[in-house]
Model the fold of this input.
Amino acid sequence: MTELTELSAVEIAERVASRDVSAVEVAHAHLDRIAELNPALNAFLHVDTDGALAQARRVDAGEVEGALAGVPLALKDVIVTKGVPTTAGSKILEGWVPPYDATIVERMRDAGIVVLGKTNMDEFAMGSSTEHSAFGPSHNPWDLDRTPGGSGGGSSAAVAGNLAPLGIGTDTGGSIRQPGAVTGTVGVKPTYGGVSRYGLIAFSSSLDQAGPCARTVLDAALLHEVIGGHDARDSTSIDQPVPPVVAAARSGDVSGLRVGVVREFGGEGYQPGVTARFTEAVELLTSLGADVVEVSCPHFDYALPAYYLIAPSEASSNLARYDAMRYGLRVGDDGEASAEEVMAITRAAGFGPEVKRRIILGTYALSAGYYDAYYGQAQKVRTLITRDFEAAWQSVDVLVSPTTPTTAFKLGERLDDPLAMYLADLCTIPSNLYGGPAASVPCGLSDDGLPVGLQVMAPVMADDRLYSVMAAVERAKPWSQPTTPR
Amino acid sequence: MTTVTTSRYDDVLERYDAVLGLETHVELGTVTKLFCGCSTAFGAEPNSQVCPTCLGLPGSLPVTNGTAIDYSIKIGLALHCDIADWCRFARKNYFYPDMPKDYQTSQYDEPLCTDGYLDVTVDGETFRVEIERVHLEEDTGKSLHVGGATGRIHGATHSLVDYNRAGIPLVEIVTRPVRGTGHKAAEVARAYVTELRDILRDLGVSDVRMEQGSLRCDVNLSLMPKGATELGTRTETKNVNSLRSVEQAVRHEVERQAALLDAGERIVQETRHFHEDTGTTSPGRSKEEAQDYRYFPEPDLVPLAPPAEQVEAIRASLPEPPSVRRARFAGANGFTAVDIDQMTNAGVIDLVASTIDGGASPTKAKGWWLGYLVGRANELGEEVTELAIGPAEVVRISALEDDGSLTNKLARQVADAVLAGEGGVDEVIDAHGWKVAGEDELIAAIDAVIADNADTADKVRGGNLGAVGPLVGAVMKATGGAADAKRARELILEKLGQS
Done:
């Protein structure tokens, strides 16, 4: 019999529903695997054994049901959970126990999903490798010396390493898709506003979007359906039904679909093995009946610089609240220091170097006299990128590109070179600036034996198209994860 | 008219033009806060009306309260403003312990309402105060500094913060520089805030209680020498929290700035604190080291785009403006425009109206409030609306005057006793025995006095009316002052065959 931890979410849910196995047994199997492998992977920061088993018992008692009832999940530690520590990968929140649940946590609980614990991430989701976590990096199950990507590397490592069949990530510039690509898993950034941000600790409010991580396209779609949909507690939430993602994932029909290959993403700087697998994936889509054309999106080249002004600007404001006054870390309160001094000392001690770098960048970009040249200019670029997308939708239904220019890089390799680190998100950032959905699906192994991701981008609220393309690729190139990290 | 005019102030305004600017913060009377569902009720246990959103907990998000938007549009329309068909909130970034997110969600370059005006009248002269903008923002929490002598942060050993107020909707109403007020700068400032307060109350958007901070005023003031064209350096006096204080703050700043300018010194652009007890201001934070608030559009909220139909529906629902209501009130009660103007600026028009509604005559009602109680309020240093005596008490006293139970002198004594907190009208009358002698009692006293003073009575009988005075005096003495002297005189003359 296959190990429970090797099953897909759909298979687990079916077995639990048919009483073939109990949700508690499923939870135990995954908790055991976490106990065994987490020391090597550092995927989980906090394992909520009691909470997971309690929820599994509710499922077994028939108190909750749903297509994913009894399925374990790894939750990125940027999503707040009532009574369970939430750090966002930062020392400044160490020990904080939120008094409330994020909307998506409520929805998952109501659907019978079993949250195993909270996963590692770059501090406040700022990074592409988890090396900026205050709690040490996570490791890629494909090669423990390599990054599982970031910022949501903990969730993708957990899913890739069979510590959980499902994960939740958040994607501000690629933090779901890039980890998905480098760990050979599926990662989806839904349309901005398609999944509630209530309870998602903000990095960059206009870009942040939570979404599913999974080993199969259908699993991702089922999770997407659970967490998606309007939420009155998030003003930016779109008041429309979730697009038909599950149906799309089941059909995988791409015949007649107009697919645009982004001309700007390829060539120099792209690992040959990545380019080769990408080209094969495009050929595969053609063979399945898709109409493939090349599309130019000239402003995509400016996405990265615009992103590194907009995201830090919003972050500099979003992270102001970590001031030692109400929760989290407090340093330097010796009875003599003023509140202002305690704030400064705490922030100096509690934030890591990448967070500080971005707060400084953002503070500068918003200052009087520089606002127009930096933040204002970046917003104009954002508009131009949105127009590139809208122009593309005149002729194609989806855009495709490699998810990342390279496969998983070695831990430590880019730590001292922020610009090299930022390049990992080169292809993923445009969709965040535009607000449309985008996803990464495995499309083979590069020459180095590491996974390559195909990125699919679609118009706002056309998330289902991502799943059609991903399902088609998945079906044609069935492959499996290494069951044991190496 | 209500404050003693110093010659120094008038002298300064002979030589300088005062330029006023008023920024008024109004706490809206919505049931819930601006961006969450917490209660806005005043006076609750500290930090009992808070949630993840108004505490700014990680992950929390704001959702705009639609009623607060409607109220803001109401205010804008009542002040003849244009209502934006599209605008945004902005974040004003600065660190302070009573600001949960360390930024305030406010509006910056895209306010909801712009370009309005408010006309105010002082001593029959009308001044148009132009409104630059009306915008909506969230209030901060409240810091309580413990251990110091002054309650200010300086010298305190520690501070406590109450976040119940954090997130209560505030509307900020900003005027353009107000010029040409001549000697009436202080009165115009007060009249503006008074008129604004009345409008806001009529709109039902706020309880406008200055003493609870639901209406707060910042007074900007600068002086320019007569004939100059360039504006002088201004100061901003913060949290001026009563109508009297608005007037005092202007007077004080006019005199203080003039003294500096006369001495050849320059005015420092700064924030100043107003001291209620002394009526003076002292320097606060200097604007020259001004903070950079790094405003940018609030990404957690979608833009505000009130549809034209919504704005027109609100416009159609506006109550009549206080000026129209007052004209009607004047006509119904026989008041002149000057009466109305005086009552309005003294802040007693509603008190007079309630007193009339309670049954007092318009003349009596106006006389009591404008002719006596406003003066008493000034002497006591209290707002006339906050006195221990209100319309109900004035109605009762007037009635007792009208039926002859109280003389005019006694009535004021009664009013003073009520003001002093001794109790209600009838209570203090009983306690002091302040009753006008009844007719029977009076007649008995007169009979006794005539019997005891037969010689004097005879003189009166003989036609010497000048001799009646001592008899009246004796009656007054016999009744312990509780007799109506005029009535006593009439009765004595009647008894002695001289009426």
The two ends of chain B are 45 Å apart (CA to CA).
